[in-house]
Automatic annotation (TrEMBL):
It comes from Streptomyces yanii. It comes from the Bacteria. Residues 51-282 form the ABC transmembrane type-2 domain. The keyword Ion transport does not apply. Pfam families: ABC2_membrane (PF01061). Its main location: membrane. It is found in: Cell membrane; Membrane. The chain crosses the membrane at residues 56-77, 89-111, 132-160, 166-190, 202-219, 257-277. It is a multi-pass membrane protein. InterPro entries: ABC2_TM, ABC2_TM_bact-type, ABC_2_transport, Nod_factor_ABC_transporter. Belongs to the ABC-2 integral membrane protein family. This is Transport permease protein. Keywords: Antibiotic resistance, Cell membrane, Membrane, Transmembrane, Transmembrane helix, Transport.
Amino acid sequence: MSTATLTPDAPTGSAPAKVLPDEGRIGLRGNLRHIGALVRRNLLQIKQDPESMFDALLMPIIFTLLFVYVFGGSVGGSLGGGRQEYINYLVPGLMAMMGMNIASAVGTGVNDDFRKGVMDRFRTMPIARSSVLIAKIVVELGRMMVATVILLAMGFALGLEIKTSVVGLLGAVALSAVFGAAIMWIFILLGLSLKTSQSVQAMGFLVLMPLQFGSSIFAPPATMPGWLQAFTDYNPLSNLADAARGLMLGGPVAHSVWLTLGWAAAITLVTAPLAVAKFRKRT
């Protein structure tokens, strides 16, 4: 199947074609070819609408400057240092946050594609249903990597120090990408389940805010009240932030890394099949 047949963005005036059943006989090579064509289609959309990259380009800069210069002095003091110490604490935590914020855009995009009729056209084609959603995740992971590179560049400009090695830094980036991909399945499921993109954004906000600020991303849990410390201990973002700090700055990492991978696997195993099933059945 050519790439051109997988880019049906223009709506037609005719009645929707019958949705085909999922193609169970499509092999791995066919799936990869379909995913590649759909990734190209999504990248072309970004090329036509470069403003859609503003969150990935500007969010790391704004968050880094905001938290370093507003909270760096006070929180850095509680860490036994100053603003410099807080930069080393904050940037690995923000890597965990990037995946959550970029992931929320996936649900909005899927919801918009259904509203415009694009997804209905895809469902009439003899392609694996999962390939449509996986292509979305691949492109969003690319946007997440762009945001992470900008975040690290800002961190180094402000004095971030990697106290382990380049391998540790790459491990932290890879771990953030794995967890980010898992979180994207949640937002895809939201985008397929809710009626409007506004409701997806509102629900995403309700999910993101408690997880991000009730974690060890911005401040050490030791400064929090006891009930919030208990929530932070079970928050997967805290595990990811602690693992990234250990990989970049040194210290024990095995426990946090395995917990993060366990969370990622559990979230994917639960939400990915639900998202694919919802994609097949949504009307």
